[in-house]
Structure formats: C-alpha cells, structure tokens
Write a structure and sequence with these properties.
Enoyl-CoA_hydra/iso, 2-enoyl-CoA Hydratase, Chain A, domain 1, single chain, six-stranded mixed sheet, 269 residues, 2 domains, alpha/beta
C-alpha cells in the first residue's frame, strides 16, 4: 500500500489483517477509502494464501464514519441535475466498496474498539463476524445528521439483529454499547480491551483458517444466496455447490486425519 493509503495490510499465515490507518482523522471514510475496499477485497478473494481477513483500526477510534469534510461537495445549496447525478454515482461507488467486503468469499471478522458510527456500522454489517472491546460505542447515526443510511446498514443489519431492535436503533440514531450489541446479537464476542480483542480475533481467524477453505468459502456463498433467494432455492444451491466439489482432496484428508487421530491439513483442493 502507498504511504498515503487509508489502509495497512499485513499477512500472518493464512490470516490477513486489514488495518484502518488514518488515526489522525479518526479513520473517517473518504472516496479513496471506498475505492481501496473495491481494490483490496477482490485481491483477497483471488489470493489462495488468504483464508480469513480481520479488520481493525489504529488510534483511538475504529471509525467516525463518513468524512463529512470531503463529502461537503455533496451538499451544494442549489445542485443542478448533473451534480445530483454525480452524487448518486459517488454513493453507488461507496456502496460497492462495502459490497466488496460481503462478496469476498473469504470470511471477514471485524474487531471494533471505541467509536464505530454511521458508515462504520455499514462496514461492519457487511462483515461475517463482529466482536468488540468493552469500550466500543456503536450508532446508526444518520437520522441525527438528517440523512438516510445508504451504504448497507438498512439492508443488512435487520437480518443480523432482527427488525425490532434494528428499527429502534435506526430511527433514533442513539448510541448503543458493546454490552447491548452483544445482547442483541450484533457482536458475538465481548472483550476486556484492545489486546484481548485482537488476540480473540486471531484465535477465531486461526480456527476458521484451519478448516477446509473450499467448505468455508462455499458456506459463505450459500448463506448469502439463501438470504437473498429463500430456503428452497438455497437448498438447491447448496446441493449444487457440494456436487461441484465432491469428492475432493480436502474430504479425503479430513477422513484420513480422523482415522489417524491428528489435525487435518487442508489445501483447498
């Protein structure tokens, strides 16, 4: 990554750490942030050495959301038709950055500390697993800013926590703590501090990475397909995915490892 990139990428075995790297801006999201997501996640998807991605952030804040200074051009007093169309295209490009996270076949874990508001919630809602330190504060902040959340929260978060809790959070724009996030199912792990957060994220990522990558990635694809298309099309898709890969070397390795009472070593073949 370039020196002025909003991201830092580090590999640790089959785990890739993607770190938001603009602590001086509270890791707010500008246009280069979204274009970076569109570039990075297809790369992760195509890299066989990447099995799991963990997202974390430098500094005091996970993300304060959209960079409102950079987005100020969207709020012209009397925008012409071409300005409005350009704004629509910019929003869609930002959406595609978030979509790239969800579409990536590799599981994505969000490790959140401190504030994660607005577009930050959009982003972690596109991840597969969310965990947080006890100082984490979340907010679907847009209604308090006279905006409609448009980067995926309204579409994804109800499927994670249910419409009852979601509508309260989205319509009020209020803050909710890591404890509440755990209680309503937005996060799955609650950690004492950043160090324990990252250690637990690493352990969970390693546990996923030790599984067959074909099975893990296929499971994510079937989950997303079933969410969009329903139970019976999802069942057909699952049958198709298994028929496409079975038999495979990873299944043979799993059986042999079980018989030999040793951990399997999957190769994704």
């Amino acid at each position: 990554m370039s020196d002025n990139s909003p991201f830092k990428v580090e590999k640790e075995g089959f785990i890739t750490w993607l770190t938001f790297n603009r602590p001086e801006k509270r890791n707010t999201m500008g246009f280069d942030f979204f274009s970076g997501l569109r570039e990075l996640f297809p790369r992760f998807d195509n890299d066989p050495e990447v099995r799991v991605i963990v997202i974390k952030a430098e500094g005091k804040t996970f993300s304060a959301g959209l960079d409102l200074v950079e987005a100020a051009s969207w709020f012209a007093e009397s925008p012409t038709a071409d300005v409005r169309e350009n704004n629509r295209r910019k929003i869609i490009e930002a959406q595609e950055g978030m979509n790239a996270i969800e579409k990536c076949r590799k599981p994505v874990i969000a490790a959140v500390h401190s504030h994660c508001v607005g577009a930050g919630v959009d982003l972690v809602s596109a991840c597969d697993i969310r965990m947080a330190s006890k100082d984490a504060i979340f907010s679907v902040r847009e209604t308090k800013m006279a905006l409609i959340a448009d980067l995926g929260t309204l579409q994804r978060l109800p499927h994670i926590i249910g419409h009852g809790w979601f509508r309260e959070l989205a319509l009020t724009g209020r803050n909710f703590s890591a404890e509440e996030a755990l209680r309503i199912g937005f996060i799955t792990r609650f950690c004492e501090d950043k160090d324990s957060l990252y250690e637990q994220a690493k352990q969970l990522a390693a546990e996923i990475a030790a599984c067959s990558p074909l099975a893990v990635q296929g499971t994510k694809e079937v989950l997303l397909y079933s969410r969009e298309h329903g139970v019976y099309p999802g069942l057909e898709y699952a049958a198709q995915k298994n028929a496409a890969v079975l038999p495979c070397e990873d299944v043979v390795e799993a059986v042999q490892a079980f018989m030999q009472k040793r951990p399997p070593e999957f190769k994704g073949k």
